[in-house]
Each structure stands twice: as structure tokens, then as C-alpha cells.
Amino acid sequence: MGxxxxxVPEIEKEPFDYLFFFKDSTIIGVMVSEPWARVGGPxxxxxxxxxxxxxxxxxxxxxxxxxxxxxTENGVxxxxxxxxxxxxxxxxxxxxxxxxxxxxxxxxxDKRRYGAIVLTADGFAVYKDGVVVMQVCLNDAVEIxxxxxxxxxVDLICFAFHxxxxxxxxxxxxxxFPKLEERLRERLPTFDTQWYAKVFQPAFATNMxxxxxxxxxxxx
Length: 220
Hints:
Blueprint: H1 2-6, E1 18-23, E2 26-35, E3 49-55, H2 60-74, H3 90-106, E4 116-119, E5 123-128, E6 131-137, E7 143-151, E8 154-162, E9 167-171, H4 177-187, H5 195-200, E10 209-213
Antiparallel strand pairs: 1-2, 2-3, 4-5, 5-6, 7-8, 7-10, 8-9
């Protein structure tokens, strides 16, 4: 990171917003900056900022050692190091999700490889490369479950549609997912409209939640 800033004019050396770390094509970490530099006031607020690094594997010792070495060589003071393990707090998770929201927006074209959800008269279909790979009639769904898959630094929200003889899964990385959720709200009277709060927390947990169950004949 120091090498990146070497050729940047001093007046333009502002903290970055986000850094994404890749191994091949997989994101393995994200670093988020929170600058205090523009706030003013007494030390330490007049010229400092925090950097939060989120990774799936614990690399804290290596990072701290490298940061201390860099700070010694470049006259930078590290005032505090916080090490968090386990589930992220809502605030921290929000920072990561904002970072990935920015990243996903810039990589929106990548959604094509996950497929596109297209609403139909009686349900929805999933297209990939112009071919229908999945088709679901909402009337055939006996149960719909919302849950999350752990994708290292962020979670992936998924819906599983259970029919009498099969299960179909879609996720929020597919184009058309928000419109599908809206359609479920409109068409399914017993759909759990509070599902998101139940699935969202705690972070990095599956949080399997039944958001719709078809009423059995004669059931009140």
C-alpha cells in the first residue's frame, strides 16, 4: 500500500474508501477507511483515520506486524489496534455491506453469470445465457424458506422454494431478486413481510426462516 502512495502528490494523498483483496477471482478480504482528517479539533482528531480489515481467516498477527513495520519506517503513529473475532456487530456489518454495495454496483455486469429472475403470470423463471434453467409456479410452492450463505466477508441472502417433489433456490445476486420479493408480498397472503429482520441478524449465521407455508385444505 505504501508503494501505491509513493507517486501520489502530497496534496492528493487522501485515505482510500475501500480496498478489496482477491485470490484468483475470489474476494478474501476488504479494508474500509474512516477518515477523521476533515473533522478538525485537537489531536488525535485533526489528522487521523481508522482502517478496518475484514477477512475470513485470522491474519491479525501478520497484518499488525506489517503495519508496525511500515509506521516505524514512515513516521506514522498507530494509536490503537482492535481485534474482533466472531460475529460482526450491526455497525461493522453495515460498513462491510456498504463497501460491497459499492463493489457490487461497479461489478453489476457480473450478475449475468448468476442468472436473471423473470416474473411470469403464475410465478417466475430463471434465465442464464438466454436459456430457461428454472421455472417455478407459486401455486406449487408448499413452503418458502429464507436463509443466508456465508460468503466470507458478506452474507448472501437466498430463498428456497419447496414444492411437493423438488427445491428451487434463488439469491440476491440474481437480477430481478427485489422484484420477486415484491411479487411474493403481493401474491402470498401469509408471506412474512418481516422476514428480513429475522434473517439479517446475527451476521454470518444461516438464520433459516420460513417466510411462507401453504395452508393445508381445511386448515384455518
